[in-house]
Each structure stands twice: as C-alpha cells, then as structure tokens.
# Entry
Amino acid sequence: MYYGGDYNPEQWPEPVWDDDIRLMRAAGVNLVSLGVFAWARIQRAEGEFDFGWLDRILAKLHAGGIGVNLATATASPPPWASRAYPEILPKDASGATYWHGSRQAYAPTSPVYRRLAAELTGAVAERYASHPAVVMWHVNNEYGCHLHADYSDNAAVAFRAWLRGRYDDIEALNEAWGTAFWSQRYGDFEEVVPPRLAPYSLNPSGLLDFKRFTSDAMLELYRMEKSIIRAAGGTQPVTTNFMGAFEPIDYRSWAADLDLVADDSYPDPADPASFREAAFTRDLMRSLKPGIPWVLMEQAPDAVNWRASNAPKAPGQMAALSVQAVARGADGVMFFQWRQSRSGSEKFHSAMVPHAGTGTRTWKEIVELGRDLAAFPRLSATVDAPVALIYDWHNRWAVENSDHPVRFDYLEVVRQWHAAIHRQHVTVDIRHPGDDLSGYAVVVAPQLYLLTDASAANVAAYVAGGGTLLLSAFSDVVDEHDRFAAGGFTTRLGTTLGLRVRDFGALPIDGTHDTATVTVSLEGASVKGRLFAEELDLADATVIGDFRDGRLQGRPAFTSRKSGSGRAYYLATVPDEEGMRAVTARIFAGTGVRPAVEHLPQHVEAVVRDGHLFVVNHSERPFTPSSPFGRRIEAASEAGDTIAAYGWRVFGPPATS
Ligand code: GAL
# Structure
C-alpha cells in the first residue's frame, strides 16, 4: 500500500529536507512523487542540467527507506524555454496566447516543446533509471488540466496530419463530416483549421474529431516520455495522473499505456454528497484497468485553495475518503502535497505537514491513517460489481455538442445513475459499450447517443447471451461520425428492444437546469422524467410504464423485451435520481443483483473487495448497526456497535464452516 504525496523539496532550503524525512518516517510515508514541477530547477538554461540537488534528496530518501515516484518534470516549461521559442506557447480558439507565469503553458503538438521535453526526460531517466529509490515514474502531470485544447498553428499542422491518417482521402473526410452542408466542402487537408472562433455553430463531426485528436496528441506525448524512460533502462511501472472523468481526455484509450492507473481526486468537503461522486470516479479508475490496483495519486489532506470557498475536511473525513478509494480498488493513498508551500498560488492549499506544524489535527490524522493503512491486508483488485454503468468519452463529446433537441450534462446524468445505484449499496463498474459485458447481471446505458456498429453489436450480443440491459432516451442516434443512420433512429438496437424511437420530445429547460417534467407510471408508483419524452413505435416490446401526463399521455414510456436469453428495457425519458433508484431497483429485483449489505443508511457505504467487506460512514452521524445483518456485520457488532462519524471498518471474509 503506497502512502505519501507530492514532494517539492526545491521549494525549501536543504536543512528542511532532513526534517521532512524524519516526519515522513513518523507518518509511515513510503512513496513520494518527486520533482513534478522541477523543470526550472533541474535545467537552468538549455543544455545546462543541475542534478546535484536531486542526487542528494534521492540519496536521503533512499536512506530513509522512502520510495520515489520520479517525475519527468515536463509539466511546466521554464520561462527561458518560451522566451527562446515562443512557438511552444499554446493559443485559445480566438488566437490569444497563453503565456508562461502560471503552469502548463505549452502546446502539446509543438515540435520544439516535444524536443525539449524529450531532452529533459532523457537526462532524468538516464541518470536515475537504476537508482534504488526510484520505484515508479510520474510522466508529466495532469495532461490537459488547464489547457483543454490548443488551437495554435502547431495544432493545425498536427490536426491535419491526424486527419490524413484517419481519412487518407479528403473526400472521405467530406463524407464523414457532411460538408455538403453550409458550403463547408474541403478541397485539400491544408484547408482544415482547428475549430477556432467562428461566426456560428461549428461542424459537429469536425468538433468531435478535434476532441479525438486532442486526446491522441497528449497521449503521444505520454508515449514519447514512457519510451524514453524504457530506452534509458527504466523498468519501474510508469504512470501519469488522471482526473476522474475529465472531459478532454479519453482515459479509456490511454489506460493500456499506463502500467497502473493513477487518479487525482478532490471531492468538496462542504458537499455532503461528494463522497458519492468520489465513489463514481474510483469505480471508473478501477474499471479502466481491470485486475490491476490503481493509486489515488493526489487528494487534499484538508482544504484546497481553488474553490470560491475552500472548506476544511471534517475530522475523519480524509480517512473515510481514503479508505473508500482502497475499498474500490486502490493500492495507494497519496496527497498533494507533503509540506505546505510558503508562497505561490497554492500556499493556502493544505498539506500533510501543514504550515501550522505538527500540532495540528491534519498532521495527527495523517499519522493515524499511515499507521492504519500499513496494517491493511494485501488484497487483489477484485471488487464485487454485478452491474456495469456505461460511460463513453466519445459519446460525451458528441452528445454535448450544440444544436441538439435539448442541452444537458451527460456526465451529470451518468453520475446520477451511479448515485441512484450507490444509494442501494450495489457496486458498479464503469464500462464502455464495446467492452466485454458478459460478466454483468445488469448493464445500465444512459443517453448512448453515439454508438458504433461494433458497440451496438456487442450490446445486442450481451442481451442475447442472457444479460439485462437498461437503455434510456436519446440512445442509438448517430454513428461514430455523428451522422444519423439511414432509416430513422434506434436502427441498431431497435430489434433487441422491440421498438423504434420516432421523435425525442425535448422538454423545456431553464438554463442548464431542467425544469419541465413528465410523470411515468411504474407499477402503481410514479417516476418523474425530464429532458426527453420520446414517442416510441412499439414492435414487440411490452409496456411496463406509460406517460401519465403531457403530450404523450397514455403512450409507452418504459418497456421490456425478452431477447435471446436476456432482457432489454427501454426508458423514453431521463428520471430524476429518485426515479433512477426506483427503476433500477425494479430491474435488479428480477436479476439477483443484491446490495453488498442490506439495510444500510444511505450515508454509509459497503463494498466487497477480495472477500473483505469495507464499511465506511461518510457522515457526521455515528452509525449503529441494527439487525438483520449478515454474518460479517455481526462481527462489527462484536467489535463495538457503533461506527463513528466518518469512521470505517474492514471485515475479513466470513469463516467457511
Ligand atoms: C492538482 C495538481 C497539483 C496541485 C493540486 C491542487 O491538479 O496536479 O499539482 O495543483 O491539483 O489541488
């Protein structure tokens, strides 16, 4: 179990380092991410490397028994680099330049940035590839975090090359993007520009390809650095830090290139539901690389600095969120950062060693958690998850384009489904529609607007093979180029569902918050629907709920069809979270999907990892189990009835009799 955080010794005089190592040992720290923003310290000018300080701190850490996740330090080029080579600076869609003076001011496609980053990575890797302290490599940092996309001339050149690789012939691009519309036809790849500031709505297929290209361009950078590390003889695991369901990067397409997945996670302590959102990202991280434990690479020991108001964590909340990550497949709990900075933009960001020192609650909790994690049994990454929830970056990019029947936040809807299932204490994996779904009792696929033929066939085969699918409104609408299929909507999954969608019936919204709702009957109860009230053409689906009001009163809203040895449900609207809970509970009932533990309050979560039951109380209210509970919770009662506010327990597998 890794325990530690980002360590930035370059911000401190060397005498502080010995104190750092003493304190790290006291806290049970066994891994630090070193040098993440140290480019300017390592390289004072082009060709001038200074590794003396890094040699010294690595030696000290090693002597202290602390492993190093060594950064390639390429995340923020120093001012000398952009002064000498202004072409490395990125531009926004209107052509304005992002200057140095903050961080991440580089164009991912700039050949000069790539050369400089490669030289730095090479120098670092050659020097430290076989250093005994180095146990992991931290490539760059949070790719795209601030610069979601670059629209510079470098990007234009690289985008054209990417498009040539994808389409080969410009007519294939014209066909894919539908450029017959609005006189957009391209005669040559050289005419294509990134989706820069334009008078009106940009070509949606082009926007989608630009998103793909941007994610791929950053992946190229990661791959470049990883291959330099390998060429220098570095055999340690290589990773970079993800940011949950971060929109600009398709982490699913990256995961194979990471030896282990690492995630940065900053749930808002002031939001009592943020632990549920955190559960979603932890499930996503685990699902990106099934079977391989991931690492929580960054979280805040206490408050952050970048919200409008930065609430501290409640006593125990930091540990509760850490144990949640472990329960959901993490084998490492790390923080940003080790010692609180005295200056700079993040001086108010909490740290493992707070500015106020070791007499603080934060420090005590850091030491306590280090001790507790060190006592954890070694567990496989297997988490019992009978349900898959579908989340697809390409679908997100396409479905959130403008000019659609209704605007909505896809991620928010996916998270609401996750939260609705999480409230039932059922664990889900987050999967892609093209993944092997055969192991799941139920697959929930919200707003699967963009669906490739291959993914559609995969989903249909899952149902035919005995799976239970819940698909909801605005699904199976376009192909991978964001084009309608010939012959209407639901053309690929219509047979499985036993219906076709005739129209989408957008409901009025007020800004980003949906307002108008429809009522859907659900076996005596009713569920509120929003965003869509679709008109369905039924072939051989059975109606299990209809619209109770609105334009489609009396028309089918929720259907079911047996297909092969499985079953496919379709819901012609987007329920609110309570409705999502009711709908999934109804579907789970017939499939044997059960909660990890019955009768838990909603603020207590229960997850089974490698046969061990984790119970975490995410609230200020202590939790006292009451019967009936499974055998493992009886053990909890023996250990003392109450799980304190933000308390947690782990129970070993039930004894086999
Ligand atoms: C992350 C970043 C860290 C630090 C942290 C503050 O995005 O990787 O360097 O800035 O946020 O919360």
About this structure: The longest helix spans residues 204-231.
